[in-house]
Write a structure and sequence with these properties.
10 strands, 193 residues, alpha+beta, 5-stranded antiparallel β-sheet
């Protein structure tokens, strides 16, 4: 059994930490100055900004398991079993095409999934730019695991038979993210009243 691989934009956690450090500096400065009214009034807004940075930039990811891929987005998560995947395209956006039991195709383009840049500057030895190769793409492990699953189960014709396999493509909302966001928005609203 392979350990899950978590794929996200490299810049997401970095930007989130920078935002958190800036917000912590502002809040710490207000606390050190003893400006408790400012902390009470603007503290919830700073927490909301920090939470939104996490929810939008850090939390979204592609989680590649041994038998399925999970596209974790801002407010919902879609789980796609490899047996339902018809095609995976790696480019500036990762695109997963899944076949639903009724035969329809669903295209999933995960928020903040690692995309391939259009051009990548080389080290200067050739004096130009070159496209990044697919095998160096951060999401290549998704493609490799899906292809390995296809090779291990040749009796399942997921590409042509929409009813192949019994697993379903599942989408579920993220009540924790929605709840925390609503509570922080209410605290901000109360702080400004």
């Amino acid at each position: 059994m392979s350990a899950p691989i978590v794929l996200r934009q490299r810049s997401g956690p970095i930007i989130t930490v920078i935002v958190w450090a800036f917000l912590a500096f502002l809040l710490g400065d207000a606390i050190l100055r003893g400006a408790w009214e400012t902390v009470g009034r603007f503290g919830p807004a700073l927490l909301l900004i920090g939470w939104l940075a996490f929810a939008i930039l850090w939390r979204p990811a592609l989680i590649v398991g041994a038998e399925e891929v999970e596209a974790r987005e801002i407010l919902r998560t879609t789980t796609v079993p490899f047996t339902r995947i018809r095609d995976i395209r790696l480019g500036s956006v990762v695109t997963i095409e899944a076949t639903l039991p009724e035969g329809a195709t669903r295209t999933i383009r995960p928020w903040n999934a690692p995309g391939m840049p259009r051009r990548k500057t080389d080290s200067g030895l050739t004096g130009g730019t070159r496209p990044e190769s697919v095998d160096n793409h951060p999401a290549f492990d998704l493609l490799r695991r899906w292809e390995r699953t296809q090779a291990d189960a040749p009796h399942q014709s997921t590409r042509t038979d929409p009813s192949a396999g019994v697993d379903e493509v599942r989408t579920r909302w993220s009540p924790g993210v929605i709840g925390v966001t609503l509570v922080l928005v209410l605290l901000v609203a109360v702080g400004f009243i």
